[in-house]
Protein 1
Amino acid sequence: MNSLSSPLLTDHYQLTMLESYLQQGMQETAVFELFFRKLPPTRNFLVAAGLEQALEFLENLHFSAGELAWLRARFGPALVNYLEQFRFTGDVHAMPEGTLFFPDEPILRITAPLPQAQFVESRLINLLHFETLIASKAARSVLVAPGKLLVDFGMRRAHGAEAALLAARASYLAGFSGTSTVLAAAIYGMPSFGTVAHSYIQAHTDETAAFEHLVRCHPENSTLLIDTYDTEAAAIKVVTLARKLAQDGIEVSGVRLDSGDLGMHARCVRRILDEGRLEKTRIFASGNLNENRVQELISSGAPIDGFGVGTALDVSSDAPALDCAYKLQEYAGKARRKRSEGKATWPGRKQVYRKYDPDGRAVRDVVALEKDDPHEGEPLIVPMMRNGRRIDGINGNRKLEAIRRQTVANYACLPEPLRSLETACAYPVEISPSLQALAKKVDDECGPITSTRNLRV
C-alpha cells in the first residue's frame, strides 16, 4: 500500500457509515460543502489552496486487492464487494486556488451518491485545510515584503514529509519566491534555493578558504554564510576574496545572515560590501523569522534583500489549525441543516458573489443559493469536475505559476485594513434572504429545539 494515496487514509467511521448506508439502500444524491466557521485572531482572510491535490485524490480513488483483503477481515462482505468497484463519479464545484475567502463561504462542494460523498470527507479536509492554513500564513509575509525574495525554509521542522512538500507548494502559491525543499521543486516545478550550513564553514580550517571553495564550485550563483564566527570580519574577508575572484570573472552573488541582531548586522555588512565595491552583492537573512519579524526589519530600513522563513511558516505557529467543516447540505433533493449549538450550518447548494468598488477593491460578499437569480458581483464558485473527471480548461488544471500570479493579483483587491498584520474589522459577508428563508423552512420542518435549561434530570 502507498500510505499517502491509499483510500484507507481516512477515519474509521467513514467505513462504518458506508456499511450502514448500503444496508439501508441510502445511495441517492448528496451535497456536501466544505467551509470555515471563523478566522483565527491573527487572520483577516484566508487563501484557498489544496484543490489540485483534492481533485487528484478524487480522480484516482480506488481500492487495491491488498486493501480489500485487509478490509475483508474487519467488515462485512457487502461493504467489501461494493468497494471493489468503488470510484468517485460525482461533480465538484469550488473556489479556484488562490481565491481569498471568509467565514461561512463554501470553498468546495461535492455532489455525488451519498456513500461516495461521505467517504471522501476525511482526506478532503486533510488536504484543503492544511494547504489553506499554510497559504494563508505565507500571504502575510508576502504582503509585508513586496519585491523581496521569500524562501520557504521549513522542511526540517514540518510535521512529516507530505506536510513539508505541501507547505512548499502552498507558500509558493501564496506568493513566495521558492523553497529549499528539493523534491517540492521537482514535483511542482517551482524554484529551489539554498546556501550552505555552518558545518561547511566549520569543516574548513580557514573561513576564507571555505568561501572560495563554494564560489568556485558554484560560480554562477553562490550565497556565502558569514555568521559562523564573526559576521563583520567575515564580510571583510568576502570583499578581499571578491577582488581575487574578479580576476577570473567570478562575482559573489550574496551573503547570508542567520543569527544575532539581523538589522544591525545587515547595516554593517552592507556598508562593508559597498565600500568594497560589492554593491550588487545581496544580503539574505534567516533565523527564526516570521512575518512580524520580517515587517520589523523592513520597517527599520534594514538593507536586506531576501528572507528565509522556516518553522513559523511550515507549522503556522501562531494559528496551527483552522475551524473548518465538511457538512451535508442536501440529500435526496431535500435541503439539510445541522442545528447544533454553535455549529449550525446554512442548507442547500450555494454560490458566493463578490462586489467590488470602482477601484477594484472588494467591498462585500453575499452567500446565496445557487438556484437564485444571479446577485450583483463576481461568482466565486465554479465547476471543477463532472462525473468524476476534471473539466478540461477549468481552474483546477491551472499551472502553479499561473495560480501564484493570480493569488498575488487578488491581494490588490483586498480592502487596505485587511492587508495589515493587525486584526481588522470583519469583512462583510451577507447571507441572502432566500438562504435565510430556506434555513427557517428546514427548521420548521424539524421542529423546535428543546433548551437544556428546561430539562429535568
Protein 2
Amino acid sequence: MKVGIDLGGSHIAIGVVNDKGKIIEKFEKRILNNEKKNIEKAIEENVFQHIKDLSKRYKIEKIGIAAPGTIQDGKIIKAYNLGIEEYNIVENLAKKIKIPVEIKNDAKCAAIAEHKYGCLKSYKRSLFLTLGTGIGGAVIINNELLDTGNLPGCEFGHMIIEKDGLLCSCGKFGCWQQYASMKALKDNLRKALGCDEKTDSKQLLNILRNTKKEDKSFTIINNIIEEYIENLAIGISNLINIFEPEIIGIGGSFVYFKDILLNKLENKLLKDNLLFNSRNDMKIQTAILENDAGIIGSTL
C-alpha cells in the first residue's frame, strides 16, 4: 500500500491508496487560522500521527506528498498559500518515519492521476487546473507533463489579470488567483452573507442551492458568482489561446460546485469574445477523482 498526502492552503488530506489507484481509507482536517501560525508543526504532527496509526493496519511502501508551490529536492521552496518557504518536509518527516517519502507539486500530481485514471485519460493534449485556496496547473502534451526544466513552472494562478489589482500572497498585485480561486469565491460569499470562516464549503453550497429568486440574498449571490465566472474565464481563455488543449480538466473544491458554476463558465468562454480561435464547443470536465486526485497522483 501507498499513502498519499494532499497539503492545501486550508486542509490536509491523507489517503491509503492501493495498486489500482483506489483510496481505501481517507482522513481530512481543515486548517484554521490559528493553526497557520505554526503551519509546519501542524502538518508534521498530523501526518506523523496518521502514519503511525495506519502502519498498524497496512504495510506502507511509500508516502507521496502533493504540495502547492515550488517543489525542489524534497523541499517546499515557496508555497505562499501555506505561508511556507524553504521547508525541508521530506527530511523532517524522515527523522520520525522510516518509510520512503517523495513530494511533488499538487496540481501536477492531480493532472498525473486524472491522465491515468480520470477525465484526461482519452486525450493527448490537455490542460488541468486545481481551483482551491489558490490556482495550480499543469499542461500535458503528447501524454507527457510539460517539462519546464529546473523551475517547475505552470504557476497559472500568478499570472496578472488586473494591473495594480489586489495584493497577492506572493507579493505581486492582480494575480489571477486573487479573483478566481475557490477561496476568493467562498470568501466573497461568506462576507456578503455574514458568515464566519467556520462556514465550510458544504454549508455554502447548501445556501447557494436553496436560495430562491425572491430571496433578498439572491441578487447579491448572483452578482458575486457572475463576477467570479468572468474572472475565471479571462484566465482560462488566456491559457486556451496559448496551449489550445483538446480538453480542460478542473479539480479542487470547484468540483463540488459544478452544478452551479460549470455551465456558466462554458457559456462565458464560448459566447464572449475571449478566444483567438473561436470554437463551437468547449470540452471542460471536472476531475473524475474529484478532490482525491492530488492524493492518488502523489503516489504515482
Protein 3
Amino acid sequence: MVTDSFISDEEQSAAVVNPVSLRRDGTSWFIVQTYSGHEANVKQHIEQAIETLDLGDRIFEVFIPTVEEIQIRGGQRKTVTFKKFPGYVFVQMVLDDDTWRAVKNVPSVSGFAASNSETGRPLPMPDDEVEQLIKEEELGQATFNIGFEVGESVLVIDGPFSDMLGEVDSIDTDRGRVRVMVSMFGRETPVDLDFLQVEKQ
C-alpha cells in the first residue's frame, strides 16, 4: 500500500500535532485515492474544479507519478509509460473546508490515503518524498524490460553473429548492452551486443 510506504502510524500521529510537511505558505501534499484506471480523469476534474470554484490560490498542483519502461522485443525497441502508483493522485494544496470538499467530491475519488481517525480530515505527506518523485520524473530515467536474464539462452538476430545461440553472461542497462557467450571454434567466446541484437529463446 502506498500509505505504508509514505505515512506510518507514528508519522500520522506527528502530523496531527505538528505537521512537519506543511510549508511556510501553508501548502502541503496529499495522496488522493482513485478508482483504478481513472487517475487521469480525476486529475482533469480537479483541475476543472480549481477553475470553476476559483481555488487557484489554494490548490496548486495535481501530480500523477509515472515511470518509463523501454521494452525490447523481437529486435524492436518501444517506450511505454506506466503509473508508478496506480490508483493514486498527488495534490498540493492548502487544506481547508473548500479544498477538501472540492477534491473528495470529484468523480472516481474514493477518499484520501491517510486521514485523522478522529476528525476524518486528510493527513499530509512529507514534502521531500514528493519532491524526490518530481525530480525522478524530470530526470526521465527509463528502466529496461529486455525479456531475458543472466544465464538464459538467447538468439543473436543481427550483426556478424546472427543466428548463433548463446548464453547471457552480463547485462549493462546503462549502455543498453548485453554480453553473450557464444561457441566459436570449439570454445566459448564473449560477444558484446546491443539489446536489439538478441532475443530470448
Protein 4
Amino acid sequence: MKVQIKPGFLFPTQFWTAELKENIEKLQNEAYLIQKNDMVGVRKSNSGLQGYHSKDIKDLNNLPGTNQLVKQIINAVNAIHQISRQGEPQLTNFWINISGKGSSNTPHTHSGLTYSGVFFIKVPKEMKGGRFLFYRNFNEADLMSTENMGLFKKGYQLQGYDYPINTILPKENMLVVFPSWVPHAVEINLSDEERISLSFNFKLNRTLSGFK
C-alpha cells in the first residue's frame, strides 16, 4: 500500500506590499532636502562611503510630500493590523536612506517593535544590486543549510520556503511592511544612480490594545 504524504508548513511569516500613487519627484526632492539639512546623518546598518541614513525625521512642516506619504503608511499599517488583531499600532520613527554606488545595509532586526517597512522613492533605471533581502531566522537558516540537510536534487525547482534568503525587487511607489523581528538587509547598490527609500517602525499602543 502506497502511503500518501501531505506537505504542510510550520509558522509561515506574512509580509505585505502595496502600490501607492505618491508624487515621486516631490518625494525625491524632499529626500535630498533632508540630506542637505543633515549632512552627517547617523551610522546604523548602512555601510559604504556613499550610504546615507538620516536622523529620525521630526518636523514635516516643509515636507508636504513626505507628510502625505507618512499618512498613507499609517493608514496601511493600521489596515494590516486590524485584519486579525485588536488595537492600534503607533508610528514610532521614520527616516530617509540614500544609497549611492557601493553602499548597502547589513542584516539586522528592529527588536521590541511591531511592524517595520520601507517605501521606495527612487530606484535606478538600470538597477544592479540594491535588492531588499529577507532572511530566515539565523538559527533556522543554519539548520536548513545544505550542509545540514543535504544538497537539492538535480532538476528540483526551489520554492520560496527552500531559500535561506528571499528577495524583493524595489519599484518606485512600492510599500513593503513586515514584522519587525524578521532579519532584513539591502544588498550592495552596483548602479551609478542613487537608490532612495523611506523606512519606518511601528509599536503597538498597549493602552488601546487592552494591556495595562
